[in-house]
Each structure stands twice: as C-alpha cells, then as structure tokens.
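[audit] Reproducing an earlier prediction to check determinism. Same input, same settings, fresh worker. If the tokens differ from the archived copy the diff job will pick it up downstream; this log only records the rerun itself.
[audit] input (571 residues):
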Amino acid sequence: MAKFTIPLFGATLFACLPAAAALAAPETPPLPTSATGGYLAGMIASGDHDSTAAEIYDRAALQGDPGDPALLQRAFVSSLEAGDMRAAFDLARRVGDAGGATALAKLALAVEAFGAGRFSDARKALADPVATAGGGDVTGAMLVAWSYAASHDLKGALATLDKLGDSNFAAFRDFHAGLIADMLGDRAEAEKRLRAAYGLDQNTLRLTEAYASFMDRTGRAPEALRALQAFSDKFPHNPLIGAEMAQIKAGRRVAPLVSDARHGAAEALYGIGAAGARPGDETAEIVYLRLALQLAPDHPPAALALGDTLGALKRTRDAVASYAKVPAASPLRVAAAVQSAMTLEAGGEHAAALAAARKLAATRPRDVDAVSALANVQRAGKDFADAATTYSRAVALTPPGDKTSWPLFYFRGICYERTHRWPAAEADFKKALELYPEQPSVLNYLGYSWVDQNSHLKEAFAMLERAVELRPQDGYIVDSLGWAHFKLGQYEDAVRTLERAVALKPGDPVINEHLGDAYWRVGRKLDATFQWNHARDDKPDPSDLADILKRIKDGLPDPPTAAAAPAKTGG
C-alpha cells in the first residue's frame, strides 16, 4: 500500500492534438428562471472559472436590468474571459454608456480600435487617467506606444515608453522600445534598447529571441548564437530557441519577432498576461491573452499560454481549442499537441488522449517528445508493459548522458516495477539519480522500494529522509517515510510521521489507511478505526477498498515478524 508520487507527465514530454470529433459535445447549462437566479448562478460559475456558463448566466441576469452598471461589467468580463469578443466589445461600449467605464472596458475598446486600424481611437480610449491608473499604466503605455509605431511616429512611441520610469519595468520597456525602433528602421536605437533590455534580463524567452534575431540580421550571427545557447543551457530543449539556432546555423536570416504594430501590441499584452499570472488570479491572465489573440490570432506563445491556464483550471475543452490555434508551421506545434493530450488525460478523456498520442508517435517516430507522450498516456492508463516498451524507444532517441532525460528512466522504472521487473526498475532509478542526483521523487520511489524489500535499509532511509528534507510539504513523500517506519516495526515513529502526512494530505485514502494501521499497532484502536473510515469514505482505489473494509471489521492481525506484512503498491 506504499504511496508513491507518480506524475502523469514529465515537464518536457509531449503528445498530439485530438480530432474535434473525439470530444463529446459540451453540455448547455440550464437557463435560470429569474434575473436573481442568473446573477447568483453567474457568481458561482465565475468562481469555478466556468466562463461559458458564467457568460450565459450573467447575460440572463442583465436582461432583468439592462442598464445596471455592475451587471453590465460582470457580463462584459464573462464574455471576454469566454472569448466571445464581439459580445465583449459591445458590452464594453454599454459599460461606458452607463457611466461605469473601467480600465478593462477601455482597454478592450482600445484593442478593438487597434485591430480595426483606428490607432488614434485606440489612443483616445487609453488617454483617460482611469485607463492608466495603478497596475494598468504599463498596459496603456505599451498600446499607446505601439499605436504611435503604427503611424510611423518613433519619437512619440519612445517618449510614451520612457514615461515608465519604474526600474521594475525597465527590461520590458526597453524590449518593446527596441522592437519598435527595429520595425521603423532605426537600427542604432534598436540595438541600444535591445542591448539594455538583454543586459537586465537574460532569462526571458521572447527577449532572448528578439535580441538574437536582431544580432543575426545585423551580421552578428556568432553573438546571436551565444545568446541562444546561453538560454538553452539554462532552459534546455525549448523548441523556439532550437528552431532559431538551427535557422542561423543554416545561414537563413531570422525574421523579426513582430511583423507589424498589431503583432507588437499583441506581444505586449501576451507579455503582461503571461508574466502576471498568479494562482487565484487566472481571470486577468486569460483576459490579457484573449486580447492578445484578438490582435494576433497566429501568436503561438499566447495560444499555448492560454491553453495551459485553461487546462490548469480543468477547462479541458477550452484548453484543447486554444492549443489547436497554434499554427502547424510553428515550432510550438508539437508542444501544443502534447499539452492538449496532457489536458485530455488529466480531464479523464483517456481514449482521446491515447488516440492522439498514438497518431503523433506514428507520424513523428524520431521525435523523442512525441514518443514520450505516447508512453506517458499509456502509463496514465496503467498499461505499464506497453509504456515501458515505448519509453525504451524514447530512451534510444536520447543522446547518452543527457541530464534532461532523467524522467524517461524514472517513468520507465515505475513501469518495470509495476510489471514485477525489479532489477530493470532498480537500474533505471539509479540511472535517473545519476543524471539528476537527489531528485526527490526518485529518492522516494527507490528508497521505499528498498525498504519494502528489506534491503539496503540504511541507504533507503537516508534517501527517504533526504526526499522529505527536499520536499517537506509533500504529503506523499512524508507518507513514504512514515510507512517505511511502519514496515520495520518502528510504530511510534510511524505514527508521528504519518500524522504529519495526513495533515498535509487529509483527503488521501492511502495515507489515512496507513495512519490507521500505525494507530492499531500502538494500541490506539479507536483512532485506527476512525482513520480507516476516513480512508473508506475518501474514494479509494477499488482494489484497496476490500482491505479497508476488512480492517474496519476485524482490525489488523498480529504481525508475523517485527515488520508488517508486505504492502500493496498504489498511487
């Protein structure tokens, strides 16, 4: 019953976009019977980040009082978050007409005007102090600067950006100033600004891309490659960086990051949205990314970032739709396909994820990310034997000694362990630790497995204790250490450690069952039954439920030795 942390996917492992037909038709939420009902239902849907339902409910509430500024604002934000841009722009105008103009409504109208080529109207929409107050001043300044750029007014654009005097905005300011100067043909100004921005921040993908592109187009390919390689050393296997490096090495000039002012404004909105994301504040990120894609529908990073955010909110269908917007020619296409399959799997659409992953692996058999994606989905579906075979294909595609390949060995080791091939599993876990020493998940899995087998005990406990030190808030890893104490008959230590694990993961059935077992061994039989009841009610795996019910009825038998009987593997 050992609990292992087994993530569905590695950070760099990818899959394939599903066909639209693979997804069931979305359910239409029930219509409210009153304006009050619509208002309350909209609030709940908004809190759940169900923007489709929120838009329907908020619009229904608005019908009861069409001129109410608060209802107009709610309906506007819901439409914007749902991506219903025509409705959002119409509601933004109505918000203003009702006297409740907000910075967001003005920003939306500025984006609408910008997209239509009405650049002076965009500036007018953003000229009001409300639109540039507080946190919105950076956004307003960026769009105003790009509107001047659209009119070939470099002086006006730079003057607007240079009003952003806060040092926190310096790299972002000079980055966009450099893009504008480059677009308008002032290479000296562009170089000055891009160098300044790059000197302040060498860890931002888009800034690195722009700097390298400029250096390459101005005859300094070696400098461009140095910048790209430095980024790749810190953040390996980025497809955009890899594609740009390959292009430069092949002697093909790299295009500027933005092609026109609309794309420049979209880049600004994307940068603010992607950089400003915070847990619990996803609506702001979604809104900025929606507006960026309104100006540049073919902006791959924005579509990918939007899909990631929607996927994290369990909005599977919306996330898949966003990933599908990444153009086929983009280096991010495979990444989008992978994220799509990950989202489908996490959303319970295993069949669609598996079909997509198989298709991609078949069409890209030499692409380690595509092959790894199939292995990940197979493993998520507990098809461990086939997953191990597919991981072996991915390993064969990886350069020997590539430190970023440790997840392949870790995940293949899991599959070997689940199919009772321990020597192969042990070798893979050791290889993963060779590539990534002290990786907590690997330490946890290998350490517990050794304890479970009553071998390498001193080294195993050191591994588990180190894993807990590295991830003290990971309830699953703390549970592994507690269960290891239990397995060796160290019941008081097991109780203390497992109580901490339950506090970290109170709703996990396996951890609650473990604590119940430990309580029973120290004579706290009433507490044990209480924990087992928790485990029963926490929706355990069907294969574990029978054992839990037997514990509740009969308790634990006396251990045949100092250590408890062999435990099931779970997780």
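[audit] rerun output stored. Observation attached for the diff report: The two ends are 8 Å apart (CA to CA).
[audit] end
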